[in-house]
Specification:
Aspartate Aminotransferase, domain 1, Aspartate Aminotransferase, domain 2, 2 domains, binds 4'-deoxy-4'-aminopyridoxal-5'-phosphate, pyridoxal phosphate, cysteine desulfurase activity, PyrdxlP-dep_Trfase_small, Cysteine_dSase
């Protein structure tokens, strides 16, 4: 192990509690990660010392808050390897980032008879906005199929893509199964056909090193709360020339250059897409979360999480009745499973009683569950602060629960 896990855990106050008299084992990190003390302090400091509206204030606090806010934009730029900070737009989350692209890029550039391609692995937030858009514009939504192990069938994607394809929007890493999609190949093929590519990075940004220039994706969406940062905050990255060609998303303050009753001119990017007072305190605190990740290093974090996933598989695969779901070769640290004869929700409740927090259900991927012939799964997802001993607690719990039904 490359880092001191106890030192890392000591930075997360929420982890040090008992539920039902048992130590909390938090394994619901794909839903949201816990926040380190530096993030909590940054939120508190902002409201204690700097609270002010940004960009137009003519006073010291407004200057300070604006400076910190824009520092986070620069930190996000660096985090994903974007060319310039103007390509970083703050949103409410991955969901809003995708909806922004659907409502602006989509309405302007996707017309009747055009096609949008997504995959079977998608979260509802990367399905529904495209369905809504296609319905409105008379375009068609095409779906890349997957194998039983939860990997997209690339040859089928090759068959689907055509000059009609205007956008391919795929999840980088699946929240339900952990599958890492071959996004570089997808992007290269899409571009060869003149289509733009959006990546849903909600799950990948916390585990994988991301360089948007190297990937050459046109858009990337992700959420701060899955990166040890605050809720209600997300990012949309877009290439400058595409963002400039897109109409604004919402109208209001901040996004304008000049307003008259006859005509309004719009602000430069990124402000054109940031109407109204943004989530200032959380944006400022997000920088502390990014620093926390950068200090540990993504590759060390990934190695730690991969080890936990491998250990979980080692302990649980031999359990009678344990059924892993999603066995792709390339995965982030997500373990979806079922227990023979048991409803996932019941398994979740029984694990909860042992202090183990997991997610159960369809994970906002109903079409994927349908494809796999499942109602849902139990999902354990690991983060930087999880330990081998917590994996053992999970495995012991699963073993006991499975024994009830699989004697
Ligand atoms: N896509 C994926 C793959 C996700 O895991 C999530 C969150 N579960 C989302 C999109 C939506 O993110 P948010 O709810 O933060 O907007």
């Amino acid at each position: 192990m490359k880092f001191d896990i106890e030192k890392i855990r000591s930075q997360f106050p929420v982890l040090h509690q008992e539920v039902y008299g048992k130590p909390l084992v938090y394994l619901d990190n794909a839903a949201t990660t816990q926040k380190p003390q530096v993030v909590l302090d940054a939120i508190s400091n902002y409201y204690t010392k700097d609270n002010s509206n940004i960009h137009r204030g003519a006073h010291a606090l407004a200057d300070r808050a604006t400076g910190y806010f824009e520092e986070t934009r620069e930190a996000v730029r660096e985090f994903i390897g974007a060319k310039e900070a103007a390509e970083i737009i703050f949103t409410k989350g991955t969901t809003e980032s995708i909806n922004l692209v659907a409502a602006t890029f989509g309405r302007k550039f996707i017309k009747e008879g055009d096609e949008v391609i997504i995959s079977t692995l998608e979260h509802h937030s990367n399905i529904v906005p495209w369905q809504m858009l296609c319905e409105e514009m008379g375009a068609e939504l095409k779906i890349i199929p997957i194998t039983d192990s939860g990997e997209i069938v690339f040859e089928e994607f090759e068959k689907l893509i055509s000059p009609k394809t205007k956008l391919v929007s795929v999840v980088h890493a699946s929240n339900a199964l952990g599958t890492i999609n071959p996004v570089k190949q997808i992007i290269d093929l899409a571009h060869a056909h003149g289509a733009k590519v959006m990546l849903d990075g909600a799950q990948s940004t916390s585990h994988l090193q991301i360089d948007v220039q190297e990937l050459d994706c046109d858009f990337l969406a992700f959420s701060a709360h899955k990166l040890y940062g605050p809720t209600g905050l997300g990012v949309l990255y877009g290439k400058r020339e595409i963002l400039e060609a897109m109409p604004p998303f919402q109208g209001g303050g901040e996004m304008i250059k000049e307003v008259t009753f006859e005509k309004t001119t719009y602000n430069e990017i990124p402000f054109k897409f940031e109407a109204g007072t943004p989530n200032i305190g959380d944006v400022i605190a997000f920088k502390a979360a990014l620093n926390f990740i950068n200090d540990l290093g993504k590759s060390a974090i990934k190695e730690h999480e991969d080890n936990l996933l491998a250990y979980a598989n080692e302990l649980m695969l031999p359990i009678k009745g344990f059924q892993p779901v999603g066995t792709a070769k390339e995965k982030v640290s997500v373990l979806s499973f079922g227990i023979n004869g048991m409803h996932p929700f019941d398994v979740g409740v029984m694990l909860d009683a042992k202090g183990v927090a997991v997610r159960t259900g369809h994970h906002c991927t109903q079409p994927l569950m349908k494809r796999l012939g499942l109602e849902g799964t139990v999902r354990a997802s690991f983060a930087v602060y999880n330990t081998k001993s917590e994996v053992e607690t999970l495995a012991e719990g699963v073993e006991k629960i499975a024994r009830i039904k699989n004697k």
